[in-house]
Amino acid sequence: MLYPNFLIIGMERSGTLWTSATLNEHPDIASFPNLPFKADGDERRVGEMHFFNTLASLESNTEGKFTRPLEDYLTKYGKVFADLVPLARTLPKGEFYQVMVRRYSDFCDKQRGRKKIVGESTPAYVFHLDFIDSFYPNIKKICSTRDPKDKITSWHFSLLGRGRKTEREVTEAFAMEYLQSRIVKEYQALLLYDKPVYCITYERMSREPHQTVRGLLEYLEVEATDETIDSMVKNASFEEMTRRHSKGLDTRKSGEENRLDSLRKGIAGDWKNYVNEDLAEKIDTIAMPFREKVFEKYDVEI
């Protein structure tokens, strides 16, 4: 059997890690990553694999689809595929893909452990849905969406935390660039796809976590008792994830950004503290028509 059983395909800065961590707390589901990745030698911490968007770099017409070079596997992602990379020069592309898929499947099976099903989360997969289906026909796909203004705010803090941005203000130039280069393209990718995707919203996950989790479990066809869901929601909370991630040494309050890692509590509507009303209106004018079409197409519960 090929693994994984499901994929969390996106969107970026929309709670994909939270969704994965929540599902991983189910007794029958392994989902990774479930904590921010650290290259600290702890094999239990597995980052996003970027499998399909890396393979897709060998395809044509992938401009703007956030592919990653195959050579990344020589040094990154725990070198899971490092020994296979040279085969790209000697094997026909189709054969090389199959070798890579077998290794990816074996790796996912290892992450599954004794649980019944396993899933992997990489937000860039939203741009490669048909490509994914060429290897895993009809694999279950989960997509977490979020208010574009909060996504922009989250991306702003992510870059600040990694030292890639120094401006404390969310400027119009920054917001529009991320909106056009990433957010709009994510919506367009979902609108172009012609098969099912189970979409949730970050806002509903924040407001009604039990109902949202129940829907996810029903989609994945696993047990969804009240007791199980209560445990999942509690153990995947920001506070619990922070405690596990920092071993109890993190004292951040809601909304604070730790420059040393990528775990930040995103509060729905937090954009109001960083995005002015004029810019918010400009963002909505561009993004909301796409968002509404996606919500209608995939019957998203708001």
Helix/strand layout:
Blueprint: E1 6-10, H1 16-24, E2 29-32, H2 51-55, H3 93-112, E3 117-121, H4 129-135, E4 140-145, H5 148-161, H6 172-192, E5 198-201, H7 202-207, H8 209-220, H9 226-235, H10 238-246, H11 277-297
Parallel strand pairs: 1-3, 1-4, 2-3, 4-5
Helix pairs in contact: 5-6, 6-11, 8-9
How would you explain this protein's 3D organization?
- There is one protein chain.
- The protein starts with 5 loop residues before the first strand and ends in a 5-residue tail after the last helix.
- With 302 residues, it is an alpha/beta fold.
- Mean pLDDT is 91; it is low at 39-45 and 248-262.
- The chain has eleven helices and five strands; from the N terminus they run βαβααβαβααβααααα.
- Helix content is 44%, strand content 8%.
- It has two domains: 1-146 and 197-236, P-loop containing nucleotide triphosphate hydrolases (Rossmann fold); 147-196 and 269-302, no CATH class.
- It has a five-stranded parallel sheet.
- Helix 5 packs across helix 6 (172-192) and helix 8 packs across helix 9 (226-235).
Low-confidence stretches: 39-45, 248-262
Question: Strand tally, please?
Answer: 5
Molecular shape: globular
Q: Order of SSEs, N→C?
A: EHEHHEHEHHEHHHHH
Adjacency order of strands in the biggest sheet: 2-3-1-4-5
By CATH reckoning, the class of the largest domain would read Alpha Beta
Number of helices: 11
Helix- and strand-based class? alpha/beta
Largest sheet: 5 strands, parallel
Count of spatially separate domains: 2
Percent of residues in helices comes to 40-55%
* Residue-averaged pLDDT: 91
The CATH topology of the largest domain turns out to be Rossmann fold
Name the CATH superfamily classification of the largest domain.
Answer: P-loop containing nucleotide triphosphate hydrolases
